Amino acid sequence: MTQALEINPLIFYIVAGIGIFIGVHYLFRFRSLHTKAVFMYLMCALSIVTFIINKAVHFFVYNRHFLNLLPLHLCYISVFLMPMALKFKQKAFFDFLFFISSTGALFAIIFPYQPYVDGVFSAKTFTYFSYHFFVAVIPLWMFSFGMYSPKISFKNASRLLGILFLMGLTMHGLNVLLINNGIENANYFMTMVEKGGQNNMLLGLFAALIPVDFFYLFFVFPILYAYIAIWNLLLKSA
């Protein structure tokens, strides 16, 4: 168990998170849509609070430069996109959260970026898990509560991944700019192959196959296409 915790200090949290996800699903499945929406807003608020605490811990305790803590990572953006999706009810927002944000957060929990976690019960680790957990499960709850259907056409799926590509390319340009101006640890969207490969098990595999900044992340796109295709097949057979 000690060796497992060294690889991923979030194991205890993952087990608890699975229980919470299932428990909430059964607790709210027969509640009114209004009650479900209120609960979703509360969960979004908790996500934002834990995100802010996490960044405060990084800034005040670990002395990270504030330019490394801007809300520009995929999961950071998603924390604020979730209440917007609930408010405006735009399917494009829900699609992005369900297929891109939730999947990214799950990978971030299963394969945590090592500089972002510490001891099992540290505030740094707990808040890292907390806001990633909310980003992962809130879109899934939206689906299980009947608030959203993940049916999506190939055209819209391609558009969704095109948006992700443009976001990643923009963040890579920002990383290069920050690094060239002395912010050495800049790595929004994990586009820098050396930092990503050294600090994350999955990204390390990608980096070994394509050791080039930004391009090593291209494995993400076939994975997401496959994930979207599986959901479409499941919904058609349901």
List keywords for this structure.
disordered N terminus, 238 residues, mainly alpha
Multimerization status: single chain
Cα-atom radius of gyration: 18 Å
- Helix count equals 10
**End-to-end CA span:** 39 Å
Mean pLDDT rating = 93
**Would you report the number of β strands?**
0
Q: Helices and strands: which structural class?
A: mainly alpha
> What is the overall shape?
globular
Beta-strand fraction estimate:
under 5%
Question: Uncertain segments of ≥5 residues (pLDDT<50)?
Answer: 1-5
What is the domain tally?
A: 2
What does this entry look like structurally?
The chain is mostly helical. The protein folds into 2 domains: 1-149, no CATH class; 151-238. It is built from 10 helices and no strands. It starts with a helix and ends with a helix.
Chain-wise SSE layout:
Elements lengths: L1 H6 L3 H18 L4 H28 L13 H15 L2 H20 L12 H22 L9 H27 L12 H7 L1 H9 L10 H18 L1
Task: Describe, in short, the structure shown.
With 238 residues, the protein is an all-alpha fold. It folds into two domains: 1-149, no CATH class; 151-238.
